[in-house]
Amino acid sequence: MRSEYVAIMAFSLGTFGSDVVNMQIIKEIPGGECKRYQEIGYIEEAINDLHVFEQYSDILGYTKVRYADDEFPLQEDPKHIIKEICTTKAGEMSISAKRYNEARFDNNKEVRRPGCEYPYLNTTIKKTVYPLVKEDKFLEYKSCLRGEICLTSIYFVGLEVGETRDRPIENKCTFSIYSPARPVRL
């Protein structure tokens, strides 16, 4: 049986009102099988660990986007993580991340949970690949092999208007970046 050690590191690179501008979650996973930790289920778990949807009510989801220096567009189905808001019969509310695949989600009732809402599905969404306004809530996910341990981390990345981001290069590490989806304000 594997054990998992989770270290939560929260740090501030600056503040905007009462919001912490950057937080990071780091997980140490024995076994050295790092590549699989880039799968969407692990991204969903990392977003839940970071409590993004609970802290930022205007973020309704995240979509995997390409880095500026990627030679080709993403060759895979779009990876979406959306906000799930569930209310129990007792009136208790929970907010969490839920992976979203349009074909499966709309056609498979098992994917949608009773008593839950998905605001992403009922809202006109603004998705940002490269920001038209300053955006400090892109999420970057990193998995690195260190000996027999896989270290994964997720953290916020900020981009200025029109700024792009190249894929970071770090020995034995894999990176992916996710753009926030927010409601369009008219």
Describe the structure.
With 186 residues, this protein is mainly beta. The protein has 3 helices and 12 strands; from the N terminus they run ββββααβββαβββββ. The protein has a domain of 127 residues. The strands form 2 sheets. Strands 1, 4, 5, 6, 7, 8, 9, 10, 11 and 12 form a 10-stranded antiparallel β-sheet that branches. Strands 2-3 form a two-stranded antiparallel ribbon. The termini are far apart.
Summarize the structure.
This protein has helices at 40-50, 52-55, 102-107; strands at 5-10, 15-16, 19-20, 23-30, 61-65, 80-87, 93-100, 116-117, 125-127, 135-146, 149-159, 173-183.
Work out the number of β strands: 12
User: What gross morphology would you assign?
Assistant: globular
Uncertain runs: 1-21
Helix content: 10-25%
Query: What is the gyration radius calculated from CA atoms?
Result: 17 Å
Query: Which sequence of SSEs, written as H and E, runs from N to C?
Result: EEEEHHEEEHEEEEE
Class from secondary-structure proportions: mainly beta
What is the average of the pLDDT values?
77
Assembly classification: single chain
What's the N-to-C terminus distance?
52 Å
The largest pleated sheet is described as: 10 strands, antiparallel
What is the overall number of helices?
3
Proportion of β residues? Answer: 35-45%
Secondary structure topology:
Blueprint: E1 5-10, E2 15-16, E3 19-20, E4 23-30, H1 40-50, H2 52-55, E5 61-65, E6 80-87, E7 93-100, H3 102-107, E8 116-117, E9 125-127, E10 135-146, E11 149-159, E12 173-183
Antiparallel strand pairs: 1-4, 2-3, 4-11, 5-6, 5-12, 6-7, 6-8, 9-12, 10-11, 10-12
